Amino acid sequence: MTGDLLSGVTAPPARVRVQLPLLLPEPYDYRVPGDMSLVPGSYVEVPLGPRRLFGVVWADGDWQGERVEERKLRPVMRAIDLPPMPEITRRFVEWVASYTMSPVGAVLRMAVSVSAALEDPRALTAYTRGEGEVPDDLRLTPARKRILEILSDGPPRLAADVAAEAGCGTGVVRGLAEAGVLTTVPMLALPRFPRPDPDANPKTLSGAQRLAAEDLTAKVSAGGYSATLLDGVTGSGKTEVYFEAVAAALRTGKQALVLLPEIALSAQWLDRFAQRFGVRPAEWHSEMAPPLRRHTWRAVAKGEARVVVGARSALFLPYPDLGLIVVDEEHEAAFKQEDGVIYHARDMAVARAHLGRFPIVLASATPSLETLVNAENGRYSRIDLPSRHGGASMPDVTLIDMRRKEQAPPARQWLSPVLREALSQTMLAGEQGMLFLNRRGYAPLTLCRGCGHRLQCPNCTAWLVEHRLSKRLQCHHCGYQAKSPDACPECEAEGSFVACGPGVERVAEEVATLFPDARIAMMTSDTLSGPRALREVIEQVKDGAVDLLIGTQVMAKGHHFPMLTLVGVVDADLGLAGGDPRASERTFQLLHQVAGRAGREERPGRVMLQTYMPENPVMQALASHDRDSFLAVEADQRRQLEMPPFGRMAALIVSGEDEGAVDAIAAALGRAAPRDREDLTILGPAPAPLAILRGRYRRRLLIKGPKTVSLQPILYDWLTRVEVPASIRVQVDIDPYSFL
Ligand code: ADP
Ligand code: ZN
């Protein structure tokens, strides 16, 4: 044999396929320079046209399909020094792309959502309060005040983190530094992720809790795929139980992921975790400051972060050894992402556990029908925690029939006499009350008394909502804001606008008049400027510095207030209108959750629901604590209609700025629909309920079929039959949850 052959000169130059985080279905081919060694999963920097992009090596030279000519290949520019993206993550990205009918690159973008994560960490500037005097001429705006408070103790912090916590822009932080009020220091080390200690501070579990925990820890230790529904009333200790599963994952050297519906609102949860495991977990959510995001991403990829708690996007992080996923409040609609890649994080989490062959736990006091049906037919196993920890009883629920004269509140007020009386008794007893209305702002609709003109969003089919606290009108769909006008734009009458219906601000106003001495706190996304503000209100309620709490769904979740004994729901019927097939289920879940805030310790709680439809099955189920019969009826109806989870459904949403063009494409899709198949039902095209959103016209089509049919290939075929111009967008929503 000759030396030539041994040195391999006849081997073709190495090439790789690199998937880029762009709306591309396929990886691109690149040449590997001789001195570079790459494997599938390697992170690389490559040229694309005049740009340089980060991407992931998707496959090496041996693949099926067309090969780009050798001489056209451009070289990989740089290999990045990080552990390669695990194969499971790459397969998961592909699986999600094919399930949601999105380009692989669009899903990959979620997995490397911080392209800059691939860069080496830069030197960062941190801010501290230092010794600087506050000059007399510096106006102390609320944002500036909050920043000074945040930095008054503790270590130096990044501008982005401080700004996020203070609810302002980073410019305000920098401005204070320029004014000499803050001092800058170079930040060398970002927070590290010490290992949570599974034995730091375990609680003694009750009998039922222990059995549940043993079941889960056995599954985690053994490994292998399993899905378990952890079904237990609010306050039964589900969190304590799944913490034991997390501990088991830590003991077996696995990473664990806990998905929460709204991580930005989970201050109490983080404290509990730190209590149980000695350190805080790694957090992952969209409101994180970019440097911290980048840093956390790398810590997960390197396996340094052992437990991640996050919102839905945490599912796409490149965990090298994930061994458990917990989805808490698995029924929450917030797990459905409605923009970009449209996916349901709970369902994708189950797929991720299946691919990775490890257990997943779905926890809820009001499981979704989807999950309950899976538990009934044996695809998921099920653990029940039937009672509240420490023997606290479930609150007593009464329905207030608002149709009856004696229950009617005075004109332009919203609380019935019984509810007023109950609030007053509660406060006299030194206990706390809570009023829930899932409607931000002062009033949902503002109209002119003179001509009936309604204030509408210029970009959406929606009314503008008056926010009196901020003196502005807001669109809750696109974020449009305007000053409340002094005169009607239609008839020019001055001061003629009247507010119709209640929002939380209006209820707060009523309560302040009724109980002038009560200490009232608001809890809405408008009144809380960030996690710190939320934490403050929570502390005040816990310390007994608040008598009455008024808020929206921000208030409904997770919080544990020992002295809270009365929950009043101002409009229990609110979620039942509209064309959402899950309206009843969702209303039940939300109201059950709100009701669960009452009487969580020794003092018994009560819940009052103001309703115009007390005979509605949702109200009846809440009053009789009979979730299961309600869900059985709900399930029967859906089964008959072949609605999910008994059938499959997908939506096509056609949108664009030119109404005629949108209609033409929607009609063409309507004509091209697979109407010849008897097992499929096609509805539409019809204007979406939000027929104009953010200035775009919208039409919807819906396809429904039996559980045994996979809709994706049908949709694929359907979509290829219509040519869609670039100005029109057609979004595919598999398993739609939003019908707006
Ligand atoms: P869930 O998640 O089901 O709503 P939690 O886990 O939040 O219930 O428990 C409700 C409250 O009871 C929490 O304050 C929790 O710390 C407490 N708790 C639950 N189980 C125990 C236990 N075994 N020992 C001590 N406290 C417990
Ligand atoms: Zn709008």
TrEMBL record:
<protein>
    <recommendedName>
        <fullName>Replication restart protein PriA</fullName>
        <ecNumber>5.6.2.4</ecNumber>
    </recommendedName>
</protein>
<comment type="similarity">
    <text>Belongs to the helicase family. PriA subfamily.</text>
</comment>
<keyword id="KW-0413">Isomerase</keyword>
<dbReference type="InterPro" id="IPR041236">
    <property type="entry name" value="PriA_C"/>
</dbReference>
<dbReference type="Pfam" id="PF18319">
    <property type="entry name" value="Zn_ribbon_PriA"/>
</dbReference>
<dbReference type="InterPro" id="IPR042115">
    <property type="entry name" value="PriA_3primeBD_sf"/>
</dbReference>
<dbReference type="InterPro" id="IPR011545">
    <property type="entry name" value="DEAD/DEAH_box_helicase_dom"/>
</dbReference>
<dbReference type="GO" id="GO:0005524">
    <property type="term" value="F:ATP binding"/>
</dbReference>
<dbReference type="InterPro" id="IPR040498">
    <property type="entry name" value="PriA_CRR"/>
</dbReference>
<feature type="binding site">
    <location>
        <position position="488"/>
    </location>
    <ligand>
        <name>Zn(2+) 1</name>
    </ligand>
</feature>
<feature type="binding site">
    <location>
        <position position="460"/>
    </location>
    <ligand>
        <name>Zn(2+) 2</name>
    </ligand>
</feature>
<feature type="binding site">
    <location>
        <position position="451"/>
    </location>
    <ligand>
        <name>Zn(2+) 1</name>
    </ligand>
</feature>
<dbReference type="GO" id="GO:0043138">
    <property type="term" value="F:3'-5' DNA helicase activity"/>
</dbReference>
<keyword id="KW-0235">DNA replication</keyword>
<keyword id="KW-0547">Nucleotide-binding</keyword>
<keyword id="KW-0347">Helicase</keyword>
<comment type="function">
    <text>Initiates the restart of stalled replication forks, which reloads the replicative helicase on sites other than the origin of replication. Recognizes and binds to abandoned replication forks and remodels them to uncover a helicase loading site. Promotes assembly of the primosome at these replication forks.</text>
</comment>
<keyword id="KW-0479">Metal-binding</keyword>
<keyword id="KW-0238">DNA-binding</keyword>
<feature type="binding site">
    <location>
        <position position="478"/>
    </location>
    <ligand>
        <name>Zn(2+) 2</name>
    </ligand>
</feature>
<dbReference type="Pfam" id="PF00271">
    <property type="entry name" value="Helicase_C"/>
</dbReference>
<dbReference type="Pfam" id="PF17764">
    <property type="entry name" value="PriA_3primeBD"/>
</dbReference>
<feature type="binding site">
    <location>
        <position position="475"/>
    </location>
    <ligand>
        <name>Zn(2+) 2</name>
    </ligand>
</feature>
<feature type="binding site">
    <location>
        <position position="491"/>
    </location>
    <ligand>
        <name>Zn(2+) 1</name>
    </ligand>
</feature>
<dbReference type="Pfam" id="PF00270">
    <property type="entry name" value="DEAD"/>
</dbReference>
<dbReference type="InterPro" id="IPR027417">
    <property type="entry name" value="P-loop_NTPase"/>
</dbReference>
<dbReference type="Pfam" id="PF18074">
    <property type="entry name" value="PriA_C"/>
</dbReference>
<dbReference type="GO" id="GO:0006270">
    <property type="term" value="P:DNA replication initiation"/>
</dbReference>
<feature type="binding site">
    <location>
        <position position="457"/>
    </location>
    <ligand>
        <name>Zn(2+) 2</name>
    </ligand>
</feature>
<dbReference type="InterPro" id="IPR014001">
    <property type="entry name" value="Helicase_ATP-bd"/>
</dbReference>
<keyword id="KW-0378">Hydrolase</keyword>
<dbReference type="GO" id="GO:0003677">
    <property type="term" value="F:DNA binding"/>
</dbReference>
<dbReference type="GO" id="GO:0016887">
    <property type="term" value="F:ATP hydrolysis activity"/>
</dbReference>
<comment type="subunit">
    <text>Component of the replication restart primosome.</text>
</comment>
<dbReference type="InterPro" id="IPR005259">
    <property type="entry name" value="PriA"/>
</dbReference>
<dbReference type="GO" id="GO:1990077">
    <property type="term" value="C:primosome complex"/>
</dbReference>
<dbReference type="GO" id="GO:0006302">
    <property type="term" value="P:double-strand break repair"/>
</dbReference>
<dbReference type="GO" id="GO:0008270">
    <property type="term" value="F:zinc ion binding"/>
</dbReference>
<dbReference type="InterPro" id="IPR001650">
    <property type="entry name" value="Helicase_C-like"/>
</dbReference>
<dbReference type="GO" id="GO:0006269">
    <property type="term" value="P:DNA replication, synthesis of primer"/>
</dbReference>
<dbReference type="InterPro" id="IPR041222">
    <property type="entry name" value="PriA_3primeBD"/>
</dbReference>
<feature type="binding site">
    <location>
        <position position="448"/>
    </location>
    <ligand>
        <name>Zn(2+) 1</name>
    </ligand>
</feature>
